[in-house]
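Bug report

Summary: structure tokens for MET27 protein differ between web form and batch submission.
Environment: batch mode, default settings.
Steps: 1) Submit the sequence below via batch. 2) Compare with the web form result.

Sequence submitted:
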Amino acid sequence: RGVAPGGSGMVLPAALRDRVAAAHRGSALPERLRLYDGWAARYEQDVAALEYRAPHLAAASLAFAFPAPPAGARLLDVACGTGLVARELHQRGFRCLHGVDGSAGMLERARSTGLYQELRLCVLGTEPLPAPAEHYDAVTVVGALGEGQVPNTVLPELLRVTKPGGFLCLTTRSNPSNLRYKAELEAALGQLERSRALQKLLAQEVEYWERATSEEESTQGTGYISGVVYIYQKCPVPHPEE
């Protein structure tokens, strides 16, 4: 909070604003995947220009919540993109990283980082995760939970592959066009909490999440949009009374 990071006086290039807008538009799945395939080569350059902080904030929050030394923990990075989250996790001692993404172009970039032990093509929301139940110590979804992207109906599938006592690290944006999605995501998480499937450890609102691509999306004229990091822990299965 407080002062905006970086020098946000400069205007973002129109082509970059268009690419971001296209990614958040509710386009049909094949078109959206083509868009990400085409974006892969420029993606890291673009998110650097946006001062996109979600991978750093999410990895820092997860590392803080993680009770054990992370080197032996098995972690699934869902919608891993080019591997931005893996870089941040690797710096914090996580070594056993698996990734899935719906875009072959993005996966190719992620593969070139050498940070993942396993990478698989998977379109979350239309097909199950390629993993057995209770397989991962932690699952991250950073940046993909938003309007026109991954539906919040994927939460049970994320929980399925998480070990009891394992962690879910999720992010979403709090900009005006994503507020309905965010409310629905929080309602779905609240329902899972009430059914004791998981418990909330953290919901941290962050003011300077990334640079806004339009005046309408900007938080109170700061030139940035805000976002939130959630950390949840999957509840162990209660033993039936003797």
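Above is the batch result. After comparison, the two runs are identical; trailing whitespace caused the diff. Residues 172 and 182 are 7 Å apart (CA to CA). The mean pLDDT is 90.
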